[in-house]
Amino acid sequence: MEWIILLFLGLIASVFGSIMGLGGGIIIVPALMILNDYSPILSGITPQIAVGTSLLIMIFTGLSSTLAYLKQKTVDYKSAFLFFAGSGPGALFGVWLNKDMQTDSFLVLFGIFIIIVSFILMVRKHVRPLKRKPSGIQRSFVNDEGIKVEYGYQAVVAIPIAFFVGMCSGLFGIGGGSLMVPAMIILFRFPPHLAVATSMMMIFLSAILSSISHITLGNVDWMYALALIPGAWIGGQIGAAINRKMTSVSLVNLLRIFLIIIGIRLIYQGL
Question: Where, by residue number, does the polypeptide cross the bilayer (predicted)?
Answer without folding.
Answer: 7-29, 49-69, 81-99, 105-123, 155-188, 194-215, 222-242, 248-268
